[in-house]
Specification:
This protein is of the alpha/beta class. Helix content is about 40%, strand content about 20%. The strands form 2 sheets. It has an 8-stranded mixed sheet, sandwiched between helices. Strand 4 and strand 5 form a beta hairpin. The chain is globular and about 50 Å long. The chain starts with a strand and ends with a helix. The C terminus is likely disordered.
Length: about 325
């Protein structure tokens, strides 16, 4: 059955911090067009590789990879909220398939997912439960992080499993590109903050809002050339997108965690979700990829990229065809 891929940056600041109106409209236009294309494709399963930002996963137990057998969007930043439509039998079958390929993956019957999971589903379909979804968390925020070779192995195992389903499958990769949100490090955090990183589930709404406001403030300072946030790195972002597009999925293998942080910020580690998604698609055979959009949007603290791909052997049109008229103006 056919497979399709969309990878995109997420940024919870879209509805909270003003960016250039023309760029804002362009980003939303691309997502609206892709949403129409996804509805036309009518996926029977969405496989979503996404990160967490110490909202649902913590150091008290932090596996490198986790499949959500049951999952709920917590609705942080007022994005999404509610239960995902996870087909439990398929989720468990996927876990068995991944284990069968020698990749250790955890599973959760009570996954709490933040905006890193919810935003693409909302932008493309209006709700987190629009389509049956298999949420797969990759630890991108709590070092030590899984290496890119293992991320590819995870993606390939998922992709081979998905290719054997008699279903239309959409693969989503959510996260990145370069950005440096104010996520503390447990190595340097004071005791109360360290405890939040270890066991900070279900905080009071006031604490959640305070974290969100800190993120808004950091982005506004970045847009003004102030603050301590690492600047966006548009050259690196576009090189990364082009590497994945041509199939160089090992492009980051030689980069250490600290080097990647210095290059793309602590949020740049979320590109693991792009790598896993492309590896999943590539496991089904050669693919054709198209960069739909890129712009470094400081007000959103986001190297904002969108790309699509589909197997070359498929005769059906790729998702990119829906936004073909917008593509060139978006490649800045």
């Amino acid at each position: 059955m056919p497979l399709r891929l969309i990878c995109a940056s997420h940024t919870p600041l879209m509805d909270h911090v003003d960016a250039d109106p023309a760029v804002d409209a362009e980003v939303r236009g691309h997502f609206a067009a892709l949403g129409e294309a996804v509805c036309d494709y009518d996926p029977e399963l969405v496989i979503l590789f996404a990160p967490d930002h110490f909202k649902g996963f913590f150091y008290d137990m932090l596996p490198p990879f986790t499949v959500g057998v049951r999952a709920t969007a917590i609705g942080d930043y007022d994005i999404g909220g509610g239960d995902f439509d996870v087909p439990e039998a398929l989720a468990l079958d996927c876990v068995r398939a991944i284990h069968g390929e020698g990749v250790d993956v955890a599973m959760s019957y009570r996954m709490q997912a933040d905006h890193g999971f919810a935003q693409l589903l909302v932008l493309l379909g209006g709700a987190v439960n629009r389509w049956p979804v298999l949420p797969i968390h990759i630890n991108c925020a709590g070092p030590p992080l899984p290496g890119f070779a293992r991320v590819r192995a995870l993606g390939e195992a998922v992709g081979r499993w998905a290719a054997g389903l008699e279903k239309r499958v959409l693969i989503l990769g959510s996260g990145g590109l370069s950005h440096d949100p104010p996520i503390p490090s447990i190595a340097t955090a004071p005791p109360p903050v360290a405890e939040m990183l270890i066991a900070g589930r279900n905080p009071p709404i006031e604490a959640r809002r305070a974290r969100e406001e800190a993120n808004f403030a950091a982005a506004r300072k970045l847009a003004q050339g102030e603050g301590h946030t690492l600047p966006l790195n548009p050259g690196w972002d576009q090189d990364f997108m082009e590497a994945l597009g041509r199939g160089d999925l090992d492009w980051l293998d030689g980069l250490s965690e600290s080097e990647l942080t210095r290059t793309a910020g602590c949020g740049g580690h979320e590109v693991r979700n792009w790598v896993a998604a492309y590896a999943a698609l590539g496991a089904a055979g050669p693919y054709s990829s198209r960069k739909i959009f890129y712009h470094d949007i400081a007000a959103w603290n986001a190297g904002m990229g969108i790309a699509t791909a589909a197997p070359i052997r498929d005769e059906a049109p790729a998702m990119a065809d829906a936004t073909a008229g917008r593509t060139q103006e978006g490649n800045r």
